[in-house]
Amino acid sequence: MDLSNGSVVTKFVLRSFPGSWKLQIFFLVLFSLLYTATVVGNILIMAIVTFNSTFHSPMYFLLGNLSFLDMCLSTVTTPKMIADLLTEHKTISKRDCMAQMFFMHFFGGAEMTLLIAMAFDRYVAICKPLHYRTIMSHRVLKGFVMLSWIIGFVHTVSQMVLTVNLPFCGHNVIDNIFCDLPLVIKLACIETYSLELFVIAESGLLSFICFILLLISYTVILVTVRQRSPEGLSKALSTLSAHIIVVSLFFGPCILIYAWPFSSFAGNKVLSVFYTVITPLLNPIIYTLRNKKMQEAMRKLQPQHV
C-alpha cells in the first residue's frame, strides 16, 4: 500500500518473514502447531488447577493465572501472524493495531507483576514454611491477582492514551510481525521524541526493574537456604530453577527489544516471535515436565480421551 505524504493512514503494512512460498508454508505449519500446543497446554493446566482439589494451593493458584495470561498474550498476536502467512498483502487496520498494542502491554504488564508474586510465594514457602498458609492466604492471593491486572491496565493505558490520537500520514510500513508500540510511534507525522523516551521508561525500565527484583528475590532465597541448611540448597535450586527459566525467557527478549526500540534491530522479529509464541508455550512445558504431581494428574486424564 503506497500512500502519499498527504494522505491519512487507515491501515498499516506488516513486514512478515521474507522468503519463498515454501518457507511461508513451513512457518504457517510451525506457528500453527506451536499456538495450538500453547492453547491446549495452558488450558489443561488451568483445568487441572481449578478442578483437581490436590492442586488447590497458593503456588498452583498463581500458576493457573500465569497460564491464563500466557494464553491471552499469545492470542493477541499469533493468530493474526498465522493468517498473514496466507496472504500476499499483510495489512492491519489502525483500530486493530491500537487494540493489539493495548492488549499486548495489558497482559504483559500483568504477567510481570504476577511473576513477582510467584517469587514471593516461593520465598515464603522456603524461608518461612511454618507461616506459609497464614501469609499466603486466599485473600492475599486474590490481592496479588487483582494487583497484577491493575498494574497491567495502568501500564498500557498510560502509553496508549498518548498514542491512539497520534496523526499518521504517508509512511505506514511496520517492520515487524505485529504492531509494536515503538515502531508505530515512529510512523507518526509529528515529533515524538518525548513520547519515545516515555515508552522506553515505561516498558524498558519496567521490564528491567522487575527482572532485577526477581533475581534479587531468588538470590535472597538461595542465600537463606544455604545459611540454614546447606543440604537443602540443591532442593531449593531444583524448586526455583523452573521459575528462573520462565523469568529469564520472558524478560530477556522484552529487555532486548526495548534496548533498541527505535532502530532497525536485525533480530527484532526473532525476539518478537520468541516473546509471543515460544515463551507462552514454555510455561506449560516447564511446569508439567518437571512437576510429578502435574504429570500424574495429566496421566489420569488420558483414559477419559481414549
What is the gist of this entry?
By secondary structure, the protein is mainly alpha-helical. The chain is built from ten helices and three strands, in the order βααβαααβααααα.
Key descriptive features of the protein:
306 residues; 3 strands; mainly alpha; disordered N terminus; three-stranded mixed β-sheet; Rhopdopsin 7-helix transmembrane proteins
Question: Tell me, what is the CATH class?
Answer: Mainly Alpha
Rounded to an integer in angstroms, the radius of gyration calculated over CA atoms is 21 Å
Instruction: Write the CATH homologous superfamily.
Output: Rhodopsin 7-helix transmembrane proteins
Query: Count of helical segments?
Result: 10
The residue fraction in helices comes out at over 70%
Coarse shape: globular
Beta-strand fraction estimate: under 5%
Number of domains: 1
Main sheet: which strands, in order across? 2-1-3
Q: Which runs of at least 5 residues are low in confidence (pLDDT < 50)?
A: 1-6
In CATH, the architecture is: Up-down Bundle
Would you tell me which CATH topology applies?
Rhopdopsin 7-helix transmembrane proteins
Report the end-to-end length measured between terminal Cα atoms. 50 Å
